[in-house]
Amino acid sequence: MRPTGVQEALSQVKADAKGFGNGVANGVHRESRHPLIDGVVSLEEKRDMYGFTVRPQHLEKYLEHDKIYKEEEVHRSNRWEQFLETYTSTSDSRSNGRGGGETAIEGRGSCWGSLRAVEQAVLHKHSGVGNGDAIGMCPWAEEVKKLVWEGVPVSLRGELWQIFTGAKVRWKDGFYQERLARDANVVKPFAGPVEKPPRLEKWASQIEKDLPRTFPGHPILGEDGMGSLRRMLTAYARHNPIVGYCQAMNFLGALLLLFMPEENAFWTLTSIVDVYFEGYYTEKMTEAQVDQLVFTQLMRERLPKLAKHLETVDVEISWFTGSWFLSIFVNVLPWECVLRVWDVLLYEGNRSMLFRTALALLEIHAAPLLQLHDNGDVLSMLQSMGETTFDSSQLVLSACLGFQEIDEGRLQKLRTRHRPTVIAEMHKRSLDVRQWRTINASSKQAINGTTNGSVVAPLRITQGEETNTLKPQSNDQRRLINLEDEDRSTLEPHLNGLKGLDIAEFEERHTLNYQLSAPKFFSYEPLVSNENHFKNEPYGRIDETDEFEDTESSDQEEEISRLRKELEHALQAREEAECRAEGLKHALAEMDQNRHSPVEMEKLKAQNAQLKQSLADKHEQESATVEVLVRLEQENRKADDARRRAVEKAEENCETSARALRRAADELEVMKKRALAAEIMLEAMEKRAVMAESMLKAVEQQAADELRAMEKRAVMAESMLEATLNFQSGSGPRTKRGVEPKSGALASMDSC
């Protein structure tokens, strides 16, 4: 049973908040796809609280922030609980006054009936600030915005995302099942000969390739989860065939499935792709290119020093921000940051949060980036800095407050300014490729047509046959179309740079994607990489699960080998063309000698001129191919030099560290010896102190004995003196003072 009342919803929020703080996963069930796997990170599995793998090098830092995440979750849950208790009754009474029906919808979330206040705040936001009635109807809209900035509780995230995106409004009963009903009719039991199943959609194979790459090993996205994701992506592709399926949509759908049931996730995905990111995931990807130009301008305005530094080291920020925007920072930032960014983005109803988050991320890491002056180091840091940004509050608040003036109104003005440039470049490249196809098809027809007897025919024709045998093959439209189709298989992979890209995708995407070429935009890897940083890890960039099949280096190697083969074929074709031209000259000479008719001579001259022109075109193509080959080899050499410099630098750092360790060991040994000597000296001093103390006691004892002896002698002397005085007082006269003079014996005794 899903709670639909206010008290039940608040109880659920409170219980989840307590469970979050105590490390207990409350409310985890299959239907709601609650992402809170465990409140405490498992050190063995190394997974976070949402079930995603924590990379070993970031585990310690994540554990430090995990405590902060739990405290923030408890705080925001209490804040949302207080808000719902305060405003739900008011919003319900106002809705009842307007005659509104029940908000709760069976099977579409757990708290629809209790979140009417949030619904009204969202409606107020989309109705416009200048609407006085809307402001009077929803005085708590500003508080909802602040709550969203602080983050949405885990237990309410699925329901609130559906409210933010308008999934409830877009919902049509039975629509999702109708989109999936085609699969049930693909294979039916029948009697009789085997029938061919219906043709699979062109995007079905790509969906199957991307399913295993989507959050591999996640405990919720197992076999059942992959089935739900497959059905959801298939249903969307049939719902919107113009978009169909684009790589990166699998990550968006999978993330939604973690927070809501399958059909709810489908309607939320339709809102995100059709409304928020309209024009992003089409084959032309026009809006994605426009946004990159807009972001480049905003970066020059807000971060001019960093923008100039990147230009100095020959780095284009669009190489990275393109995938950031397409994936909405999934696999770019830690998951707590990703979800906080999604909260704000879905609430605002537009893409402005993408720009603010990217600028805030670059601003946070601007200082270390400015200290790097090597191209490879800058590329490596730009690709890895996102996964080390664990402070979600700093990132989101910096984006929302520090870049608050970058709103949808300003972005629309900038898009209007840059969109004609993108469209013009796309149109120009499309015309260039079409013109190349036409020229290449004509030249190939003129060269290869000799095998059918069109060029060397004058060597063996008679005068009466020239009308049929010398008829130009270029008039055969079907032949020209076949040649165009044949040339596509050889040239387009070279121009495209992506292995496995079919002709339709090349025509729409590669020729129209000028500034964000496919290899840079989708499968960029830094030139310096000592390991596969983004393989099967959750905090990598979008290519961490091998979403895109080839890296830039492998594409370049394949292009080089392909171009070499094409160059060899072109050289062989040129030699054959020269031989044929020589044969044609001989034929013209023979015809001149045989005095053939002027008409025949004119035709031969025209054919010779056409062959020369095709040969010149072939030379131009060869020159262009050689230039491309040379440029690719130069890029490879630069990449090798960068890798070599990085290895040398790493070896130098290792050697420096080893020397420092050796010096430290030597100093430690010296300090140990000094400490041992000091200990020995201390023991000797202690012994001396004991001896001195003993001697002092002996001296004191001796002095005491002498003092006692002197006291005894003094007493004896006094007694003798008294006796002498008594003796003298009776016999002799006294002195002037009444004291008789002492005798010599007594004087000597007194002196003693």
UniProtKB/TrEMBL annotation:
GO terms for molecular function: GTPase activator activity; small GTPase binding. SMART domains: TBC (SM00164). Residues 726-752 are annotated as: Disordered. SUPFAM superfamilies: Ypt/Rab-GAP domain of gyp1p. Residues 553-702 form a coiled coil. Keywords: Coiled coil. It holds the Pfam family RabGAP-TBC. InterPro entries: Rab-GAP-TBC_dom, Rab-GAP_TBC_sf, Rab_GAP_TBC_domain. Residues 151-349 form the Rab-GAP TBC domain. This is Rab-GAP TBC domain-containing protein. The lineage of its organism: Eukaryota, Viridiplantae, Streptophyta, Embryophyta, Bryophyta.
